[in-house]
Specification:
Elements lengths: L3 H14 L4 E5 L15 H6 L7 E4 L4 E5 L4 H7 L6 E4 L5 H8 L5 E4 L6 H12 L4 E4 L4 H5 L12 E2 L2 H4 L3 H15 L3 E4 L2 H8 L1 E2 L12 E5 L4 E4 L7 H7 L3 E4 L4 H6 L5 E4 L6 H10 L2 E4 L5 H5 L3 H28 L7 H15 L2 E4 L4 E4 L22 E7 L1 E3 L2 E2 L2 E7 L4 H18 L2 E3 L4 H13 L10 E3 L8 E6 L18 E4 L2 E4 L3 E4 L2 E7 L9 E6 L17 H18 L5 H10 L6
Helix pairs in contact: 4-5, 5-12, 14-15, 16-17
């Protein structure tokens, strides 16, 4: 179809043929994934929106797209205001909007493989207040009109070796079996792709930037498991690795297997499992125990092998990013560099410094006003050339067999303004506040979030995203349940107590609409930090990312003695860890960037 307007019209025609008065379009897949394969990019196909979070509703005469504060500007650049109204979350929601806008008596369709059971419950209640009903569809109507829809990936699974995984798959499954016994349950459903990859010590290439395979799994109270994955994706090496304790089935057999669990007590994660799973279990007569996926917390609390691998990956990645920043400093002011050229250069340097498997997300290579979009995704149309007088923000990461990286740096192109230096220094102060925080065991990320914001608040500023997200071990770059975010924010992801072994980002920022953006991001590891004379068990953070922070954007006079000491110690560590990997002018540049700052 030649335009997004044509696609919207075709969907409305299909809804009419299906006797539906509307349809809900989320940006997810059958596993409630944040990043999805091309076959599941229904929201982008329908609207043109390229962000990583959002949803839409189509009615006969109205259509609305729902986004949070990260995408307020981006959605207006990418989606037609003629065809769509823009709705801000959490100020409203799909369910609330339907209650106010669905026609009386309407039949609103939804795909039960793309929504949680709780969402179905709330939407049903909202529509009932309107005299309307929510209707599960057998086949997604977008799929009926998306003529050139891609097929799911056929990439093969690969084994994640035990020296990197740190624990055999059989031992992980037996831990889950012990958990099931403690709950009196018979079987646990694993639907989240990273949970399955972690549990079985396998990885895949079915989703861009996330090394997972499309699969479902059932783990039983005897420690055996059923893994549902397309058979042509499993080689003999993977079969041997999985062993006799894992029964292999086609992915398409999963629903029938759920209905065969009648009479059993089945643990299902209500946040990470779609409504269709609960519906199939109930249809077969199983009893559902709502519990968090048993892989989530052990996956988040990294073991020594995973931590060691992550540190090794970070060191290689840091060398590549440091060389890139030198290249930007030298090449950008002279012209001939734009956002896309810079992103390609960074990718090539990552390939030089390690066995890069993929990026961990689409590189945010954002110059000037594009930097004011926290989750900017560049296109040929939005691509800006670098010109002196503003800032370049680059947020990027790599997927390596031993770790997942994520780093943001902000670079002045030409002479920065006094305001830019002030705002960047405040972002740095917030970053240091998180990096140096010491807190009692049991502290939640929401309790730390304001540490990072205070320097900005004191200047009447803030940022509309969380301060930190969890990060996987050669898995998802955004991993729960750990977060550093305000309670109730759209990125809060719950409010989990922080535990040793968890890896998070530390990324405060500042964004001036239409002009520039600033963000400083390192990854940090939660570690024990005993306080002499204290009477509480205390934790803190160990910084894992080592790349210089641009000196030209720091007002040393604004820093406290403690902040300046942290910065100089950090740069000394950067030089010690990254310097040996560099030579010649690259090493000389790094030495200059890491020299102590003085008042």
């Amino acid at each position: 179809m030649s335009s997004y307007a044509d696609r919207l019209a075709a969907l409305r025609q299909q809804l009419k043929a299906d006797r539906l008065d509307g349809f809900v379009v989320p940006l997810t897949d059958e596993h409630m994934s944040e990043y999805v394969g091309s076959y599941a990019q229904r929201l982008e196909w329908l609207t043109g929106f390229k962000g990583s979070a959002g949803s839409a509703v189509v009615l006969p005469e109205e259509a609305a797209i729902f986004i949070d504060g990260r995408y307020t500007v981006q959605v207006r650049q990418q989606v037609s205001a003629t065809e769509w109204s823009f709705q801000s979350v959490p100020e409203t929601s799909v369910a609330k909007w339907l209650q106010e806008n669905a026609p009386n008596g309407a039949r609103i369709g939804y795909d039960p493989w793309l929504h949680t059971a709780e969402w179905v419950k709330q939407a049903t209640k909202s529509l009932a207040a309107r005299g309307a009903e929510l209707v599960a569809v057998g086949r997604n109507p977008i799929d009926k009109v998306w003529a050139d829809k891609p097929d799911p990936s056929k990439a093969r699974l690969v084994v994640q070796p035990e020296e990197l995984a740190g624990k055999p798959s059989a031992a992980k499954r037996h831990d889950m079996a012990d958990w099931l016994a403690s709950e009196g349950a018979d079987v646990a459903v694993l639907a989240a792709l990273d949970s399955i990859a972690w549990t079985f010590n396998v990885r895949g290439a079915d989703v861009d930037h996330t090394p997972v395979a499309l699969a479902f799994a059932l783990v039983h109270k005897d420690g055996t498991a059923d893994l549902f994955v397309d058979g042509d994706k499993v080689g003999e090496d993977v079969r041997a690795h999985l062993g006799n304790g894992v029964r292999l089935h086609e992915r398409s057999a999963f629903e029938d297997e759920l209905t065969a669990l009648g009479g059993k007590l089945v643990a299902v994660d209500p946040e990470r499992s779609v409504a269709a799973i609960a519906q199939a279990l109930e249809q077969g007569g199983a009893r559902i125990l709502a519990r968090r996926d048993p892989a989530v917390l052990p996956k988040a609390t990294k073991n020594p092998a995973e931590i060691a691998g992550h540190k090794a990956a970070q060191a290689r990645d840091g060398a590549a990013v440091s060389r890139f920043l030198k290249w930007v400093e030298e090449e950008a002011p002279g012209g001939g560099v734009d956002e896309m050229i810079a992103a390609e250069k960074l990718l090539s340097l990552r390939h030089e410094h390690g066995d890069l498997k993929d990026l961990s997300f689409d590189t945010i290579s954002a110059f000037g006003p594009n930097g004011a979009l926290p989750h900017y995704k560049g296109t040929a149309e939005s691509n800006l050339p670098f010109t002196p007088g503003t800032l370049y923000l680059v947020d990027s990461g790599g997927q390596y067999r031993d770790g997942t990286t994520d780093i943001t740096r902000t670079v002045p192109i030409g002479q920065p303004t006094a305001e830019m230096i002030d705002r960047n220094t405040r972002v740095l102060q917030g970053h240091i506040a998180i990096a140096t925080a010491i807190f009692p065991k049991g502290t939640r990320g929401s309790q730390l979030d304001s540490f990072a914001r205070r320097p900005l608040w004191e200047a009447g500023c803030d940022y509309a995203h969380g301060t930190g997200h969890g990060v996987g071990a050669f898995l998802a770059v955004h991993e729960g349940p750990q977060r550093i975010s305000p309670v109730g924010s759209s990125q809060s992801g719950g409010d989990e107590p922080l535990q040793p072994g968890m890896i998070l980002s530390n990324e405060p920022g500042y964004y001036k609409d239409g002009e520039y953006g600033i963000r400083i991001e390192n990854l940090v590891l939660v570690v024990e930090r005993p306080v002499a004379g204290g009477d509480k068990e205390t934790l803190g953070f160990e910084t894992l990312t080592f790349v210089p922070i641009d000196r030209r954007l720091i007002d040393v006079a604004m820093l406290s003695d403690r902040e300046l000491e942290w910065l100089n110690n950090y740069h000394a560590e950067v030089l010690a860890k990254i310097g040996p990997q560099l030579a010649g002018e690259d090493k000389s540049w790094l030495e200059r960037q890491c020299a102590p700052l003085v008042r």
